[in-house]
Design goal:
Blueprint (H helix, E strand, L loop, with lengths): L7 E6 L4 E2 L8 E8 L4 E5 L5 E6 L13 E4 L2 E7 L5 E5 L3 E7 L4 H11 L5 E8 L5 E4 L4 E4 L2 E10 L5 H7 L4 H38 L1
Parallel strand pairs: 5-12, 6-13
Antiparallel strand pairs: 1-10, 2-3, 3-9, 4-5, 6-7, 8-9, 10-13, 11-12
């Protein structure tokens, strides 16, 4: 999956991602592209300890969703678009929900068939996080809470979930800083312990000299 350096990507099992049946809406699919208040494993720190992430239920409150498209694997021509009414986005207590009409192009109709046949059953979304107040870090639970999403670019059906390492690289301005700070703290503690051991060894050697005298 191509990753644009200025965007974040998250992939989820597309809950209830399915075609719309018996409603007079051919080539229409629905599904949640993200969930709220549902922590998931994001990456590991330098010590191999897990770091989690959760999307706050109010994260999209001030989000720019003026031009959101639906794609496949975040690339290619749009399969649906909210500007022309073929893509509708709504939010509830569970998460972000989309309904997309895929009958506007052959590529969209082919995607509809893939979804209908169960070949595609996951979704991802591309976004940016607000530079101020966008993230809240809980050291106790080791959880990064996404508080404010600045702009939503696309919701995409995906064949393979985004690589977690690639995802974390795209948002290194925050989490890499947290991980780096923890690494520096660990190294400082190790240096302090080494210095303490050296001082104790010097003190023991000096005491031994006194005893010998």
């Amino acid at each position: 999956m191509p990753v644009k350096s200025n965007r974040e990507y998250r992939s989820f099992d597309a809950v209830n991602f399915h075609k719309v049946e018996d409603e007079g809406k051919p080539y229409t699919v629905r599904g949640y592209f993200t969930t709220f208040e549902d922590p998931y494993h994001l990456t590991d720190d330098w010590d191999g300890n897990p770091i989690y992430e959760v999307i706050d239920k109010n994260a999209f409150a001030d989000c720019d969703m003026s031009d959101v498209i639906m794609q496949f694997d975040h690339e290619g021509s749009p399969l649906a678009r909210n500007k022309n009414g073929s893509l509708n986005l709504t939010f509830d207590e569970h998460g972000g929900f989309c309904e997309a009409y895929l009958g506007g192009s052959q590529r969209g109709r082919d995607m509809y068939e893939s979804i209908t046949n169960g070949l595609i059953d996951q979704m991802s979304f591309g976004f940016t996080i607000a530079s101020e107040g966008g993230i809240d870090w809980d050291e106790e639970t080791r959880t990064s809470r996404v508080m404010r999403i600045n702009k939503l670019f696309d919701v995409s059906a995906v064949s393979i979930p985004a690589n977690p390492n690639t995802e974390i690289h795209a948002r290194s301005y925050y989490l890499d800083g947290v991980i780096e700070e923890r690494r520096m703290q660990r190294e400082a503690l190790q240096r302090a312990e080494q210095e303490s051991k050296a001082k104790r060894a010097e003190a023991a050697a000096a005491l031994e000299q006194v005893v010998l005298l």
